[in-house]
Every structure is written in structure tokens, then in C-alpha cells.
Amino acid sequence: MGGVLEGLRVVDLSTGIPAGFAARLLADNGADVIKVESPAGDVLRQDIYDFVYCNMGKRSVVLDLEDGDARAALDVVLDRADVVIESCDAAGRERYGLDPDRLRAGRETLIVISVTPFGGSGPYRDWRGSEHVLYGMGHEMYATGQPDLPPGPLAPYVSWLTIGFSAAVVTVAAMYGVANGQGGSHYDISGFEAMAASIDRRAHALVAYAYCGDPLTRGGTPEMFPPHANPCADGWVSVAAGGLWWEPFCRVVGLPELAEFRTAPAVGTVPEDVHAAWRNWCSTRTKREISDLFQGAGVPSEPMNTMADLLRDDHLRSRSFFKGVDVEDSAGMVPGPIVRLGGPEQDAWPAAPRLGEHTTEVLREAGVDERWIMRLTAQEATA
């Protein structure tokens, strides 16, 4: 595909979203990412859309690491690798010979990135962790939501992708070190720590508590008028009218019911007749009309987009955000790379690989004996 990472060889031994997404970010920027899967495939293949998103541009190799010959073939592939990304727990590493020290033995510049829920050491090292677990333990779930309700989670995958971004950043930093003469190393990424260090409230809340003993609490900041979500003629729209935006907001709306407020009031303090007048004002206009009116006055306002809205959005189209891609041999569209560091712009994007699609190709490139390849692929076919 081209890009600043062209020529970088990455072996992705992970399953699931966080580590797989980190490897996909490297593939987006030109790295050759070889995804090693068991004969059953990555568990993420059970949801083809999740799999496609996290694995576009990779090559799939099937190796049954229960088998000694397959582990030996993996070692040959690793001899040509620059980076390994894996997500095994301690038992899996021992069972499949994926201990980072063993992977790096004799490979001085190899970078090994381990992405697990709690890291490879400490009392929690063997604990399982869903994204809600990691958000609840490491992030601000305790302070999310209203004070009279239980703590609330984030939308799905926000935690996973935060952890994946963290792993990708560490990988690129490690590559910079190798390029400047440092040896490779093993980097142990803990999802728990990635969430606890996130700038999205938790990190600054930890600092504030450590210095001042001041914790965040649920519902500590009242919602200001207008509400964050407002029904209009064709859906919902969001408007931010606090601070310096209150006067231009009132000027655009032109409702005398708002004149008594000198600044944006808390939603709960606004009389029902004012809420009714605001809802009526919105109901006669589309979300795009409302956003255009407020943006023209310098007030932040955005339509709450459906999937269909995003696919036909003029701004995203002008920036070539969506790319064509095959999904199980059917033409589709996907969001383009989140971070594109260079290389030629493309209208289409490489498809996610079919299971084992590149096994023979990759093993031949690595120099594995043809009879050995035939034996391994025969095992794959009968698995």
C-alpha cells in the first residue's frame, strides 16, 4: 500500500480487538502484517464486520501451534520479523512457546508487544478482562452517569480501541529506538493501566485526588440548556450554548422566553414553557438547517448522524474518508485509516484476509521447505 512503514514486517499472533487493532494501524501505514491464526481462526471472525475493521490489509497464515512442526515454521517466519504483537496469557505462552524471552532469543532487534488485560506481572496477571471490567477498574465508570443511578459504561469498543492505540504508539516508539541503534525489547501493555492513564477524565482525576483528595462524583456537573440532544424535524441535533455562545444562541433562536437568562442555565431550572418553545423551534427545522444556522453565528452545533447520514456526508466524501473494500467477496465501504502517515492516497483499501489465504505464500517467502509447507497445509485442510 505504501506508507512510512513500508518494509516493516509484523507478525500478529493476537486474537480479539485491542492488539489486532494496533496491528491494523501499522498495516494502514504500509507495514506487512502477517496474522497467524489457529485452524479455527481468530474468535473475532464470528463477527465478520469487527474482523474486517481490525484486520484490513493483513495476510492470514494458519498454523496449529499445538503441533511442533507448526511452531518450528513460525520460528522461521519470526527470523524475518521486526515486530511481534501477541495477546496470550501466561498459560498460552508456555503452551505454544510464545514466551517473549524465547521469541527474542537470537533476534536482538526484534520488538515484542504483549497486550493483555492486566499485564504479564502482578497479582492480576492471570485475570480475565472484558472492556467493561477494564473501564470499571481503571477508568471513570464509577463517576459516569447520574447520582441516583448505578455507574454507567461507555459505548462498546471505546476501551478496546484506546488500549489498541496505546499499543500502536508504543510499537512506533520502539521502532524509532531500533532505527537509532538501540536493541529490540519486550513491551508489556496492560489494558488496566492504559485506561487508568487515559486523559479522558481518569488521569487528571487521579492527579487531582492525589494532590487535593477531590474525587469525581456521578452527576457532579449539571447539564446546561439546551439539552445535549434535541429532537428536530428529521432526527436529533446537539447545540452548545454555554459561556460566550449564549448571546449568539439567543439571537439565532429569537425566543423572548430566553431573554430573562443572562447565561446558559441548568436544564433543570428552565420552566416547561421555555422547553416547549425551544422544542417547537427545533421541530420546524432539519438538523442540518439548525447546525448551519448556529455554525453561521459561531455557536457549536452538530447533527446527530445516523449511519446513512455519515455515508452520504459531503465533508467526509470531500476528504475521501470512506474506502471501497471487499467483505467476503462482496463490495463494501469502510472508514479509511484513522492515522495515515504518508504514502499515496487510495480509493480502495485492501480486504481483510480469508482464513489461511496466504499460508503458502508467506511460508515460501520465509524459506520454509516445500515438503514442510505441503505437510502443514495438509494439516490445515483436514483440521
Automatic annotation (TrEMBL):
Keywords: Transferase. GO terms for molecular function: transferase activity. Transmembrane segments: none annotated. Gene3D superfamilies: Crotonobetainyl-coa:carnitine coa-transferase, domain 1 (3.40.50.10540), formyl-coa transferase, domain 3 (3.30.1540.10). PANTHER family: L-CARNITINE COA-TRANSFERASE, SUCCINYL-COA--D-CITRAMALATE COA-TRANSFERASE. Belongs to the CoA-transferase III family. This is CoA transferase. It comes from Acrocarpospora pleiomorpha.
